[in-house]
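Input (structure):
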């Protein structure tokens, strides 16, 4: 595991964008696993700048997103499909038909998960998986549990996750209580993993996830067993690390 400590969120975002850009440059038809949330917004902004300047070409890239809220349509401004369109896909030359997000409107959870696993199997393994880090150590929407879930699953979101995401909704009552998420096993099959974290609120979980015991109670801790992981943190998120 390689850990890169940066001074600011902007530095963290730029370094993360450098790593993603390098993957796309080395393998133009690569498969990127992408994440949502506030943390990767700066990284996506950096990638957009590079595409618009002609430095980077996403025309052959396939993307597979980590997760989606169950019950939200792609047009809902809080859905993760909407997020990806607004922050990345609408501003780069990726083919929309080559971008995949779980179907939040599929009410049958078994079917939704099986369908997404089939997509991952068709295009995978993922060349580079981008991850954020939840305040309770979740990656994707894989919440603390008594075991690591291998494949795409429908998750009952932890209250800590609901509370953390409430800022994006008009009220906490509007936050979906379930989500479809790529499984831990699928994430671990990615050839490379890039995880980013910023802010003082992430400092304790960064230390716990990457220097504590491997446990499904801290889902991100499983990444200690992956062969190619890069963790990029800003000064606040990394302040408890040696």
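Output (sequence):
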């Amino acid at each position: 595991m390689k850990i890169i400590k940066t001074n600011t969120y902007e530095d963290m975002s730029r370094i993360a964008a450098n790593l993603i850009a390098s993957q796309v440059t080395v393998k133009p038809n690569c498969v990127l696993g992408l994440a949502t949330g506030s943390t990767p917004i700066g990284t996506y902004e950096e990638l957009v700048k590079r595409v618009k300047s002609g430095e980077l070409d996403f025309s052959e890239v396939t993307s597979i997103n980590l997760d989606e809220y169950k019950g939200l349509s792609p047009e809902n401004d809080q859905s993760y499909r909407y997020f990806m369109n607004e922050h990345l896909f609408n501003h780069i030359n990726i083919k929309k038909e080559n971008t995949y997000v779980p179907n939040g409107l599929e009410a049958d959870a078994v079917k939704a998960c099986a369908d997404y696993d089939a997509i991952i199997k068709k295009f995978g393994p993922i060349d580079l998986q981008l991850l954020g880090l939840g305040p309770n150590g979740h990656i994707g929407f894989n919440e603390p549990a008594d075991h690591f879930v291998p494949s795409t699953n429908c998750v009952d979101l932890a209250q800590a996750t609901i509370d953390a995401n409430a800022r994006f909704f008009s009220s906490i009552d509007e936050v979906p209580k379930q989500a479809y998420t790529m499984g831990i096993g699928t994430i671990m099959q990615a050839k490379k993993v890039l995880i980013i974290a910023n802010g003082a609120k992430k400092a304790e979980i960064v230390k716990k996830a990457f220097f504590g015991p491997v446990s499904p109670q801290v889902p991100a801790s499983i990444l200690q067993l992956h062969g190619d992981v890069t963790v990029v943190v800003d000064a606040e998120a990394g302040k408890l690390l040696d």
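Notes: The domain at 2-233 is CATH 3.40.50.1360 (Rossmann fold). The chain is about 30% helix and 15% strand.
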